[in-house]
Design goal:
By secondary structure, this protein is mostly helical. The chain is flat, with a radius of gyration of 20 Å.
C-alpha cells in the first residue's frame, strides 16, 4: 500500500463530500439539470469542482491500495535512534501523520470556521468536526513511534 496515494485520495474525497454538501441547494443545480442554458455562478462552479475532487479521490484510492510502497534506506537519524543515540525516533507512518494534520487544519480553517461564521449550517459544522476527529485519529496513529529493536 502506498500511503501517499491513499492520503491524497482521502483528502480529496473528504473535500468533495463537504463541497457537495455545501452546495446542495445551489440554483441551478448543475448535477440535476441535463442541460443548462445559463451562466453558472461561483457556487455552481464550486459544486462542479467538488464532484471533480470526489472523482479524483475515487480514482486514487485503488491505485494507492494496490501499489507497492517505495522502500527507503534508513537515514542517519534513524540509525542514531536505533543505536541509542540522540536521534529522533522514527514515526510509524509519516504519510498518515501528514494526512491527519492536514485534515485537522483544513477541517477547522476551511469547513468549521466558515460554516459557523458565514453559513450558519449545522450539517457542515458536523462534517468539519468529523474531519477533525478523523484527522486526530490519523495523526495519532501515524505519529506514534516505532519500537526499534
Amino acid at each position: 500500500m502506498d500511503v501517499d496515494y491513499v492520503a491524497f485520495a482521502v483528502l480529496m474525497g473528504v473535500f468533495g463530500i463537504v463541497g457537495i454538501t455545501a452546495t446542495a441547494h445551489v440554483s441551478p443545480n448543475v448535477l440535476a439539470a441535463v442541460t443548462c442554458n445559463c451562466i453558472p455562478g461561483p457556487a455552481a462552479r464550486l459544486q462542479e469542482l467538488s464532484v471533480v475532487f470526489l472523482a479524483i479521490g475515487l480514482v486514487l484510492a485503488p491505485i494507492g491500495l494496490l501499489r507497492k510502497a517505495t522502500i527507503r534506506a534508513p537515514s542517519p537519524a534513524d540509525e542514531a535512534g536505533a543505536s541509542g543515540g540522540a536521534g529522533i525516533p522514527p514515526m510509524r507512518s509519516p504519510g498518515v501523520f501528514f494526512l491527519g494534520v492536514a485534515l485537522v487544519v483544513f477541517g477547522v480553517a476551511l469547513v468549521i470556521a466558515p460554516s459557523f461564521l458565514v453559513l450558519k449550517n449545522t450539517l457542515l459544522i458536523g462534517e468539519g468536526a468529523g474531519m477533525v476527529v478523523l484527522g486526530a485519529l490519523f495523526g495519532y496513529t501515524g505519529g506514534r513511534t516505532r519500537q526499534v529493536v
